[in-house]
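Propose amino acids for all 439 sites.
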């Protein structure tokens, strides 16, 4: 288990910019950067060739950090155990199974828009970070449990926030962000985890006593439990994994996309033209989504600049070598989509927001690991298909009905961690482009 050393937090002004610092070290030292972190020696590999070697090498396993939340669930496990879990849970994420969620995703998004419409004034103020997080949480809970009350979503959102904050702070130690001295942190974390467990137990019991629902993550797990293939604890671990892995990441991708659109009105208008032409008056269907090519490019480019999982950490199980550099057993290996997505050999003018980079004509021949928001290799994100259905539906409906403006200077620097976050939320204003249809 990784054990960080605690330090007193420096003043906010002195707060380091760890991702910016990583980029600086890469500029100075090249594609392989070695440094000492609060968890011991770290090797950061920035070149896509090295990313590929590492994700394909079973010597580089996950660290134990996530286990305190997700137990031995898919996101934290490795080796043979991981393999059998992945085999069990892959089928519910097949494209054909996911398409059935489209009306639910549209319904949840329209619910959020109706809440916004009920706010006072012509220009409504919302925190886009909080709103997208709540929406994606509702969606993953409905994917898992079908029916969930707004009160359950609220309680889960509050508890998940505490847990994610705690995990984020612990994982930031890899980048030498000092851990804040906070005696209440552990107590708050334990209480929040207790709330998540109680909610998951209640919701799972409802599914297990519900009438004959088959397929889907939870029914698949319950069936396996009935056959004695998995334990109660394993069912819990996989469900908590899906909740933790499956909402904040997508929310962050959506929030940064809206931020970039707000900063680039030309792109926003071009996207609105595409959506108005393809969506009006339809609701999103898979056929309509396949015609939203510009939206897909915008979303891909937003995840290039702000990959929701900004770094992935592995631990070497035995002495090894990558790119001619020796890695001793126990050393940490870091891959950062945030830095590789800015590699100047693979991306011209890398800081510029340019959705056209993802036009098929310009993507042809690009290194597979120059862009890896969902990683790759054996641990490639299980939820990628869901994200690429969910995010376009949400963005299409938001673009169709509202214009989101995020004021200049209101969004802080991105913070590293398991999921890229921002310091101060995303205060935004929302103007309705057209009235919502009656319920
Ligand atoms: C934009 C949204 C998302 C991004 C950028 C993302 C990214 C990633 C990344 C980088 C990993 C590899 C982590 C590692 O190995 O250390 C991963 C794994 C995983 N993700 Fe996602 N994810 C997203 C959404 C989702 C959703 C919606 C789900 C829903 C169920 C999900 C479920 C998982 C699971 C279960 C794994 C572990 C896969 C395995 O090791 O077999 N993710 N994701």
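Proposal:
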């Amino acid at each position: 288990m990784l054990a960080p050393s605690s330090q007193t937090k420096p003043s906010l002004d002195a707060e380091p910019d760890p991702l910016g610092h990583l980029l600086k070290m890469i500029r100075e030292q090249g594609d392989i950067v070695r440094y000492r972190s609060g968890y011991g020696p770290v090797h950061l590999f920035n070149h896509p060739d090295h990313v590929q070697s590492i994700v394909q090498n079973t010597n580089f396993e996950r660290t134990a950090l996530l286990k305190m939340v997700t137990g031995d669930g898919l996101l934290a496990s490795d080796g043979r155990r991981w393999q059998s879990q992945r085999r069990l849970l892959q089928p519910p994420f097949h494209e054909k199974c996911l398409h059935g969620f489209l009306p639910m995703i549209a319904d949840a998004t329209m619910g959020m828009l109706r809440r916004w419409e009920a706010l006072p004034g012509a220009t409504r103020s919302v925190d886009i970070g909080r709103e997208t997080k709540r929406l994606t949480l509702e969606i993953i809970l409905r994917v898992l449990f079908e029916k969930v009350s707004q009160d359950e979503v609220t309680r889960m959102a509050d508890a998940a926030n505490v847990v994610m904050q705690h995990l984020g702070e612990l994982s930031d130690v890899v980048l030498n962000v000092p851990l804040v001295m906070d005696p209440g942190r552990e107590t708050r974390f334990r209480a929040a985890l207790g709330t998540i467990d109680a909610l998951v137990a209640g919701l799972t019991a409802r599914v297990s006593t519900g009438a004959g629902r088959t397929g889907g993550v939870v029914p698949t797990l319950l069936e396996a439990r009935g056959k004695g293939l998995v334990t109660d604890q394993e069912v819990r671990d996989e469900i908590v994994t899906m909740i933790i892995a499956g909402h904040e990441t997508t929310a962050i991708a959506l929030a940064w996309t809206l931020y970039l659109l707000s900063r680039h009105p030309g792109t926003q208008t071009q996207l609105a033209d595409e959506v108005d032409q393809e969506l009006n008056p339809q609701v999103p269907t898979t056929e309509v989504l396949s015609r939203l090519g510009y939206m897909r490019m915008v979303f891909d480019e937003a995840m290039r600049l702000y990959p929701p999982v900004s770094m992935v950490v592995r631990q070497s199980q035995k002495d090894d070598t990558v790119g001619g550099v020796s890695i001793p057993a126990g050393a940490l290996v870091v891959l950062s989509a945030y830095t590789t997505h800015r590699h100047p050999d693979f991306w011209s003018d890398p800081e510029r927001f340019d959705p056209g980079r993802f036009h098929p004509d310009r993507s042809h021949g690009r290194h597979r690991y120059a862009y890896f928001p969902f990683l790759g290799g054996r641990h490639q994100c299980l939820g990628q298909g869901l994200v690429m259905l969910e995010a376009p539906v949400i963005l299409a409906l938001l673009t169709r009905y509202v214009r989101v403006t995020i004021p200049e200077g209101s969004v802080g620097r991105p913070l590293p961690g398991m999921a890229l976050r921002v310091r101060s939320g995303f205060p935004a204003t929302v103007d309705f482009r057209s009235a919502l249809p009656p319920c």
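The chain is about 50% helix and 10% strand. The longest helix spans residues 185-209.
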